[in-house]
Structure formats: C-alpha cells, structure tokens
Amino acid sequence: KRSFRESLPYFRTLHSMAFSLLGLSADSLMTDFQLSQFARLVKTPLSNSNFTYKGIPKRMTIGDQMLHIINVASLQDMSIRDYMSTLLSRGSSGIPSTITIDRVEDFASRYRDFKLSESVYDYTDMLIMAKSAELEIPELKYLFIDEAQDLSSLQWILVNRLAEKAGKIIIA
Question: Three-state DSSP class for 37?
C-alpha cells in the first residue's frame, strides 16, 4: 500500500512547491533569530508576528508595519512606491505619518542587503524567485487550487506556471 506522500508527491502549498522546485534547504530560510538580528541592526523593533495581506493589523511595531508593506507590495507584484501611493490615495490606509515611502524603501533595501549577507530568503522571496527561475515543473495530472480568492498576484504567477504542466485544473 502506498503512503499519502507517495500517492500525492506534489500535494503542497505554493510556498512549499516553490521551496521544493527551487531546491532550497531549511538553512536558507530566514529564522526568527535572524529577523531579531536585523531588527537590532536597523534599530527598529520587530515583533516577529505572522503577517497577513488583508490590511495592517493593530498593535504592530513600526518595523512590523514596514515589513508588512514590503511583503504585500511584493505579493501584489508592485513596487513599494506604487503600492503605498495606492494606499495613501484611498485616504484610509491606516499607515502612520511616520512611515513614509522613502523610509519603507530604505528599510526594504537594508532588509534585502541583510538577507543577502546571511544568504537567507523569506517566504515572499521564494515566490519572487519562482516567478522567473528556470524550474523543472513536474507533469501534474491535476492542479487543485483551494482558496483561490485569497491568492496574491505573485501566487497567481506561480499557479499559471504550474498550470502549463497540468492535465486538469480545479479552482476552488
């Protein structure tokens, strides 16, 4: 009798699919400790909280809010400037006046440099890399995308790449 993993070897989230297809190892993922090191380096508190892209949750530090903006802009396949300009033009963005576009762009640059110096990636980086990397995407009999309404633009790019090799696509 075949195990679940043997029966469905590609049953995974988009992040874990990107992780696998890119050939990354657990050592290449940003840890909470490294995030804490970055926070100390830039003298900006980070709570290591789990971010969503539905809006900026309350009780986040300034650093958390900037990291959230950086991740959501990336997930929406937008520049920080374009994403923040869109939010600010709506008038009720919830972004404090101390968080300016220039400040977030500087924070993003320092975050990118830190990850390069540590040779680590965060979960959004995996999707960004999978967007354009030469990947050996397996032939899939079925591609089942659950909670499709919650996918970001960047996730849809990976879905479309996977769909090219799928026999049947089911979107739920």
Answer: helix
